[in-house]
């Protein structure tokens, strides 16, 4: 696996396009010049292929999603939208694909990004949504082993552990739904308008809603799932919390009390995950400190023994 952010880069005509993995904007310029045939000394500007936004700040570069497509502009070259390319040949530039030795200019499988996060920090599994965990479980063991750079036995144990966790969560949800169904039967006057039967699995939806900024799948989970905060990724939880009650009320079409309860639940889930991460990091730090002290103690004991022999 190549370290760095997976992205794509093209020239201003979009007739050449390469897949790259780079850690910074500067490295993107270097590898982009090389791939697209620019001279090493030529001055280039990095912009977003979609809208021409200039990308110079490293922090902004790191915030962009994986597989973002960039355009490298040489001097006197300017960005233009795809539709301004000459007439009916625009589709040729859009569909042009060039193979790179390390990365293919194609949609990166979602599990590959998750595997990279695990490879760099195993504790990041705490921040993953249930959908992310299921994605890792469904990956062939051999492929995931290769991506993690681990042993196949350990990868198999990891997938089994994740599956066990999801099974327990599903049992908890089913128990809660049975309790809700029982309460509705005993006290029909308190029946919630949202039926338990409506809480069914929803298909993945990767389209982004232009108004809310959420993936359509995320909106469906928020509206139709029991305890939706446990099913969302950390990024989605942060987005819900940052939007606040008023904005989420408009997005979901709910009343204030119900929306407020959802936002509070997302806030609590987000805080719990962050505390779990901090706990894991603390344990890891203490473990490293104990290991270092043990090494120092062993080294001191050896030195003392050597002096005694002398």
Task: Summarize the structure in short.
The chain is α+β, with helices and mostly antiparallel strands and 310 residues long. About 12% of the residues have low confidence.
What are the salient characteristics of this protein?
54% helix, globular, alpha+beta, 310 residues
Oligomeric state, counting identical vs distinct chains: single chain
Continuous helix count: 10
Number of strands: 4
User: Structural class, please?
Assistant: alpha+beta
Helix content: 40-55%
Largest sheet: 4 strands, mixed
In round numbers, the mean pLDDT is 77
H/E element sequence: EEHEHEHHHHHHHH
Computed over alpha carbons, the radius of gyration is: 25 Å
> Separation of termini?
51 Å
Biggest sheet strand line-up: 2-1-4-3
User: Given the C-alpha coordinates, what overall shape results?
Assistant: globular
* Low-pLDDT regions: 84-106, 191-205
Beta-strand share of residues: 5-15%
How would you portray this structure in words?
It is built from ten helices and four strands, in the order ββαβαβαααααααα. Strand 1 and strand 2 form a beta hairpin. The protein has helices spanning 25-36, 58-63, 90-94, 110-120, 130-138, 141-148, 152-186, 216-224, 234-252, 256-309, and strands at residues 5-10, 17-22, 45-48, 68-73. The longest helix has 54 residues, at 256-309. It has a four-stranded mixed beta sheet with strand order 2-1-4-3, covered by helices on one side. By secondary structure, it is of the alpha+beta class. Helix 9 packs antiparallel against helix 10. 54% of the residues lie in helices and 7% in strands. The radius of gyration is 25 Å and the shape is globular.
